Amino acid sequence: MTKLDSHETKTAFAARVGLTKGRISQLVAEGLPVRADGRIDVAVGLAWIEDNLDPARRNKGGPAIPARAATTLAEAKRLHEIVKVQRAKLAYERERGELIETAAATRTVFARARAERDAHMAWVQRSAPLLAAELGADPRATFAALDRMMREHLEHLADLPLGSFGDGA
Question: Are 32 and 40 in contact (CB under 8 A)?
């Protein structure tokens, strides 16, 4: 993945948010923050656009638009630009490593859980003969008892909801 600059030219920023360079210049005239060198800080620019894009048509404190109302072309364009900005913000956060794909997280958690399960089962195989020798017990019976108890313990852990483990902090 290419390294993400924290600031971009107007042209690059326009491409990121799906607008034209001319529209970005208009937004700069309306207050979009620009650095002294003429470049736009990406995070600040995305936040400003999300907060200020087309404020005259936003429905702040006004009557709610009824569901299935006839959508005007201007309203459709406004919604389209808002979606573009939101997608650009998500792409930026993904590039910065603040977001990950659900499938990747699921694969990672599953692989970690499988590795921990396998490590616990290997511990039983290593520890049973040592415990049996220390206690003077039958190695097969000791292994069978430890194996059964470890499997019950792992099944109990698997049945717990994820929220019961806390937030990890």
Answer: yes
User: Could you give the angle at the alpha carbon of 90 between the alpha carbons of 86 and 165, nearest 5°?
Assistant: 125
- 142 three-class SS: helix
| Residue 132: closest CA among 151, 149, 146, 152 | 146
Q: At 21, is the secondary structure helix, strand, or coil?
A: helix
One digit per residue, the tens of pLDDT, for the chain of length 169 reads 444 568 888 888 888 888 888 888 888 888 889 999 989 998 888 888 888 876 554 333 334 444 455 678 888 888 999 999 999 999 999 889 888 888 988 999 999 999 999 999 999 999 999 999 999 999 999 999 999 999 999 999 888 887 777 665 4
pTM: 0.45
